[in-house]
Every structure is written in C-alpha cells, then in structure tokens.
Write a structure and sequence with these properties.
The structure holds two protein chains of two kinds. By secondary structure, chain A is an alpha/beta fold. Chain A has a domain of 187 residues: D-Maltodextrin-Binding Protein, domain 2. Chain A is built from 19 helices and 14 strands. In chain A, the strands form three sheets. In chain A, strands 1, 2, 3, 4, 7, 10, 11, 12, 13 and 14 form a ten-stranded mixed β-sheet that branches. A two-stranded antiparallel sheet of chain A has the order 5-6. In chain A, strands 8-9 form a two-stranded antiparallel sheet. In chain A, strand 1, helix 3 and strand 2 form a beta-alpha-beta unit. In chain A, helix 4 packs parallel to helix 5 and helix 9 crosses helix 10. Chain A starts with a helix and ends with a helix. Chain B is an all-alpha fold. Chain B has a single domain, classed as MetI-like (MetI-like fold, Orthogonal Bundle), CATH 1.10.3720.10. Helix content of chain B is 73%, strand content 1%. In chain B, strands 1-2 form a two-stranded antiparallel sheet. In chain B, helix 1 crosses helix 13, helix 6 packs across helix 8 and helix 8 crosses helix 10. The two termini of chain B are 32 Å apart. Classes of the chains: A alpha/beta, B mainly alpha. At the A-B interface, helix 4 and helix 5 of A face helix 2 and helix 12 of B.
C-alpha cells in the first residue's frame, strides 16, 4: 500500500511538472555565433529575449555556437544533425544546397510580408536570398576598409591615406622600415586583417573590374585582364616593392598583434570590427590608428562585404513563432542593440544613421565604406569550397603560386579557371 | 556458458558497445563512402553513386597527395624515433637515485599536462617569425643574424624543411612524457640481479644497456612503437594548427589532407578514400605488431 502511495505521488508530481512547463508550445530554440565580448553579447541577447517573452509570452532559449566550431555545426545541421528552430546563420548558398529540401535553412517566402524588407540595404538582402527564395533577414555586415597607423604614417611623411593603388605603393614604401642588416622592422602594407588569403584577393579583383562568376553562378570568369592586374599588384607588393610580408600568406600569421606592435603600418582590407576591438582591447594604440575608405583600383574602390542573417531551420515545428521572433529582432531599435553588442555594422540605413554609428571618426568612415560594399557571397553552392583559404583551395593555390612561388601567372590563372568551372559544374 | 563467463561478458559489454558504435561503425561507414561519389554539395539532389576505386585512383594520381603520404611517414618516423631515443635516455636518468630526482621528474613530465591543441597555440606564438622570443634571444646573443622562419621557410633539403623539423620538435616535446612513463615502468620491472650479474661478467654501462636493458624493455618498446606509429599516422592537431600543411604543402600530413578534403572542399568520397589509406598504413603496423608478438609468444 505504501509503495502504491509513493508511486502515485511520483506520477502526480511528474504530471504537475509537465503541466507547468508547456515548453513545446511556448518556447523556441535560437542559436547564434558569438560576437565581440561574449559576456556583453550574451547579456544583449538575454535582454532581447526577456523583453520578447514579456511582450508575447514566448520564451526564446538562446544557445551560443562558438566560431571555432561554427562551420562544423552548420555542416552537421545541413546533413540532418540536431538543429534549433531558428538561428543566426551564414553561407546560405552552400548550406541550403547541402541540406536540399530536407535539412538546413528553410525558405520563408510566405512570411516575407512580416518584414519590412524595403528598410534594409539592398546588397545585404542578397545574403538571405537564394534562387529567388527569401530565407530571413540580414542583421550584421562585415564591411572592410583601409586601416593605417597614423603615427608611422606621420613619421614617414605620409599625410593622407592612399586614394588609389599607386598611392598605396608609394605610402607602403615610405612606411616600410628596415634595420641595418636588412631585416624588416615594419612592413608598410598588409593585404587584409582576416587570416584568409582569398579574402584579400576579392576586393582587389573587384577594384580591377572583375567578377568571379556570371550572375547565374554557372560560369567562372577569372581568366581575364582584371585578375592579372589584381595578382600583379599582390605579386609586386611582396616581391618587387618588398613592402608586404610573404609570411602573411602562411597559416598562423596574426595581423592584429603585428599592427598593434607597429610591425605592420597599413592594412588594405581591414574588418570594421577591428575598430571596436582596438578601442576596447588595445588602449595602448589609442590615437595612433585610423580607418579610411578602400583605395581605388583601376576600375573602382569596391570593399569586401559579408553578412549574416537570421533565419528558420527546416524541421522546426514552430515556424510562425520563429518568424514573429525574427520580425521582433528586425525592428530598428533591436537591430541597433544587436549592432551595438556585436560591434558589426547594421544592415538598415536607419540604424546606421543613429548616433552610435557616428560618435567616432572610424565609425563614420565605416558608414561611408558601405557605399563601396561588394558582397563576398556568390550565387553558387560551391563558392565556399572555391574560396577556401587552405592549401588545395583553387583561388588560394592560384594566389600562392603567383605571389609566393612566383610561378607563371597565365598558367596559374588558366588552371584556376578550369578547376573553378569544374566546381561550378558540381 | 558458465556464470563466470556471463559475468565477464557483461563487464566487457559496455566497452565493446562503445568501441563498436564510436570506432567500428564509423570506420566501416567511412570505408563504404570511400567507394562512392559522395559530394556534400550534391548529395541531396544527386545522391551517391558507387564508383569502385575511382576515389582512390584520383587521390593517388595527385602529386600533392603522394607528397603528403611520404611526409606522414617521415613525420612519424622522425617524431617516434627521436622521442623514443630521448625517452630511453631520460627514463634512465630519472630512474637513477639522486637528489632532486622528484623535481626533475616533474619538469620532464610537465608537457604531458598540456593538451596538444594548447601546446600548438603556445608553440605557434613561440615560433612565429616576427614575434618569436626564441628569435629575439638568438639575435640578442649574436648567434643568428637574421630571424629564423621556423614555420614559414620553404627551403628544403630533400623532403626535410625547417617547418617540418619545428613541428617534429613540438610533437616530441608534447609526446615525450608518456614515452618516459612507459619506459620507466619497464625499467623498474627489470630485476637488479640481472645488472649485478652483468657487472660480475665485467659488463660496462653500454654492455648493461645493450644486453640487459634493451632486451628486457623489448615488450614495452613493441607496444610503445605500435601505439606511437598508429597515433603518428593519424596525427592532426599540431600540423593543422601550426601550419595547416604549409608552406608549399611541406608539413601536410594525411589527417590534415583528409580534413581539408572533407570539411573545406566538401568532397566526402575523396576524404574517405584518404582515410582508407591511413587505415591501410595503420593496419600494416598492427599486423606487424601482432606478428612480432605472436613470434615472441611462440619463442
């Protein structure tokens, strides 16, 4: 009898717990990568989720996906691994191709009217649209511009940031410092802040007037004069003018410590997030650096631009709740909070017009640089494999063979064109 | 089946189950994938197709892959050879009875507490050309005139390069403690009477090492070599983190190549085929080890 009572009590208690936690209907799982200071980022999302719960009664369970495992996580999700209901995602074109119509990112065309898409930068929307389908809202931008050490520039007699490639060469030459035995103490130029060699080529190629593929993403278009100009510029900076460090093309090279230590004077394509990081993490260089718009190439002054988007995952049973949550996040005031916490540029002009994005000189430059933005996303699922900055990557190998191994440029480009076309035909 | 046997099977079952689920199943599945055209970008739209040995043929026709196979062997032989030689010496030292032995043991074994990923990050900083404190010290001491490009110098002598030797050194540094522990355990199990007998026969230090220590350590050394070669052929972290296989593919090893092929270029079929090559190499070591062990048992 005692056992029966005990069993009944346990069952009743379990039932009451289940009744008190109707998690299935009232909560959604939401994953994000982490941006800037993780504590600040988590606190910002917590503030947003709590406000949303107070407004709608829907609980948003937030989980962090570390950048170190982000790629593997989304690869697993796109192959049917454990997935949240909605998330902060990237590389839509590749992950939607991998997942097909079973897993991964889910188009939400039917809910598009819930978002004021006309309020976003048109270019940013390219990163959440694929083959005409709408997958969510872009929320962060990664715009890159020129970054230089003002103290080194002043010492070298460089009074203005370079406006074009010729001026870049001139300034880099002046700022490169060598010791008596010829060892370089300060490199005048570094191509990019991110340790991704292919990201360095992209803006140079666009600035020379090139595009990597046709608009339908089916034909590779890299065997041309623009690519020769871009690669010649890279080659000459390293081997002719000797103002860029060849070691930067190897894994393990860290641009920020070198820039902070004054071993690199100028970075051609620096992530705008560096402004925030230099301010908060490197007060020792306060007043010694400045951003400027990218230098113009023969054709234009295109700047590398990436974006992340907030979308829904296939398999979620809470699509509508997710869409409402994303619509809530897409409000100007919430986009501003996300932008402030992450330190990344917003994808809405209204947010970029706020005081937050004009209270520092570098932020004003970043806002200007958005006018030069050229998306780094390309309309082909294989782009992620093509643009991989690892040995064996098509574009990486082409750059490396021309700039570091100093092989025949025409042969390298022809080979890369063929391999890239084969990838686009996958 | 008696009760004792049932008990033994029950005790072994969890470990066996884990081995099957986490070891055998993925291995068999990977081997199956290696015979398929498994392209992650098209697997949902086109599915997979059996292609026999095509993946193997393609990767074996790739010069960089063959270079990577050769380097995997060289890396492993160098790292294992140097580590075991140093281990033999250091194990003898810390097995001797002298003042301060505990301190020395702690110092020698301390790299064991550093996970390979952390060790790679630390050594990456120590060996980065521009920021390397090692370079600074050598320059200040006047030993070198120009900075050594530990991880980026692409000059070679045969298959050897400075980046390769740098990574071998780090692998030895991190792997040495476990080798010393193995050998120390082996040394401590050798009866002292054997050394006394050798002394009575007029044997010196070398003779005692050659005719007592080495033969008595043979079983330990065999296990050690088998483990180190198996681990060496599949080694990933240090090469990937420190150089990613560069410069000019000079430090690439099979595990890194497999990772890049699968997770960077999304060609699972070819990545699985590269994994198949690692399996064959490991199998050769295992078969050799089992053969040597059974020969020992017979004799």
């Amino acid at each position: 009898m005692e056992k029966l009572k005990l069993t009944t009590a346990v069952l009743a208690l379990s039932a009451s717990f289940l009744a008190a936690a109707p998690a299935g209907a009232e909560s959604i799982e939401f994953w994000t990568q982490t941006y800037g200071d993780q504590i600040k980022w988590t606190a910002a999302i917590k503030e947003l989720t709590e406000a949303y719960e107070a407004e709608t009664g829907v609980k948003v369970n937030h989980e962090i996906v570390p950048w170190s495992s982000s790629r593997k996580t989304w690869l697993a999700v796109a192959q049917g691994g454990a997935a949240p209901d909605c998330a902060d995602m990237w590389w839509l074109h590749s992950f939607s191709a991998i997942g097909g119509d079973k897993f991964g990112p889910m188009p939400i065309n039917d809910f598009k009217s819930k978002f004021s898409v006309e309020d976003f930068y048109e270019g940013a929307l390219q990163d959440s649209t694929w083959r005409g389908d709408f997958y969510g809202i872009p929320w962060r931008g990664d715009i890159r511009a020129q970054l230089y050490r003002t103290d080194i520039a002043a010492e070298a007699g460089v009074t203005q940031p370079p406006e074009n490639w010729d001026e870049v060469i001139e300034a880099a030459r002046k700022m490169t410092k060598r010791s008596d035995n010829g060892e370089v103490e300060t490199w005048g130029y570094s191509f990019g802040s991110a340790a991704k060699v292919v990201d360095w080529l992209m803006p140079l190629y666009w600035q020379a007037g090139g595009e990597f593929m046709t608009d339908d993403g089916k034909t590779a278009t890299i065997d041309n004069d623009a690519m020769r100009k871009a690669l010649t510029f890279m080659h000459d900076m390293v081997n002719v003018h000797k103002v860029a460090d060849p070691d930067a093309f190897e894994k393990g090279y860290k641009a920020r410590p070198a820039f902070v230590a004054g071993k690199v004077a100028m970075i051609g394509s620096a992530e705008q997030a560096w402004g925030n990081r230099l301010e908060t993490e490197n007060p020792e260089v306060d007043g010694k650096w400045s951003f400027s718009r990218s230098a113009a190439g023969p054709a234009n002054r295109a700047s590398f631009s990436g974006a992340g988007y907030l979308g829904v995952l296939r398999g979620s049973e809470k699509v509508e709740q997710c869409v409402d949550w994303l619509a809530y996040l897409s409000r100007d005031e919430n986009m501003l909070k996300l932008s402030q916490a992450a330190g990344t540029v917003a994808t809405k002009p209204a947010v970029m017009a706020t005081d937050f994005w004009s209270d520092r000189p570098y932020k004003r430059v970043v806002a200007e640089a958005l006018e030069d933005a050229h998306t780094s996303q390309h309309p082909a699922p294989a782009w992620s494999a093509i643009s991989t900055s690892e040995p064996g990557g098509i574009l990486y190998d082409m750059i490396y063979s021309v700039v570091i191994e100093q092989q025949d440029m025409d042969a390298a480009i022809t080979t890369a064109q063929e391999l890239m076309q084969a990838q686009l035909d996958r | 089946m008696n009760e004792k046997n049932v008990f033994c099977y029950v005790m072994v079952a969890p470990a066996l189950l884990i081995t099957i689920v986490l070891g055998v199943y993925p291995m068999v599945d990977t081997m199956l994938i290696s015979f398929q055209s498994y392209d992650l970008l098209t697997v949902q739209s086109k599915g997979t197709e059996w292609v026999g040995f095509d993946n193997y043929r393609e990767i074996l026709a790739n010069d960089k892959f063959l270079q990577t196979v050769l380097q995997t062997v060289i890396f492993t032989v160098l790292a294992v050879g140097i580590s075991v030689l140093m281990g033999l010496f250091l194990a003898q030292v810390i097995n001797a009875d002298f003042r301060g032995r505990s301190v020395l043991r702690t110092v020698i074994l301390s790299p064991w507490f550093v996970p390979p990923v952390v060790a790679s990050a630390i050594w990456l900083w120590l060996l980065e050309t521009n920021t390397s404190p090692i370079n600074s010290m050598l320059l200040d001491a006047g030993i070198i005139e120009r900075k050594i490009r530990f991880l980026t110098d692409s000059d070679t002598i045969g298959p050897f390069s400075i980046p390769m030797l740098s990574i071998v050194a780090v692998r030895c540094w991190n792997g040495l403690p476990i080798i010393i522990i193995f050998l120390l355990a082996g040394l401590q199990s050798i009866p002292k009477s054997l050394y006394e007998a050798a002394e009575m026969d007029g044997g010196g230090v070398w003779a005692k090492f050659r005719y007592v220590t080495l033969p008595m350590l043979r079983p330990v050394l065999m296990v050690l070599f088998a483990l180190l070669f198996l681990g060496g052929f599949g080694h990933f972290e240090m090469n990937y983190i420190m150089t990613g296989g560069g410069p000019r593919n000079l430090t690439n090893v099979l595990a890194v190549w497999t990772y890049q092929e699968g997770f960077q270029f999304l060609r699972y079929g070819k990545a699985a085929a590269a994994g198949g090559i690692v399996l064959v190499m490991c199998s050769i070591i295992s078969v050799f080890y089992l053969w040597a062990q059974s020969k020992d048992n017979r004799s």
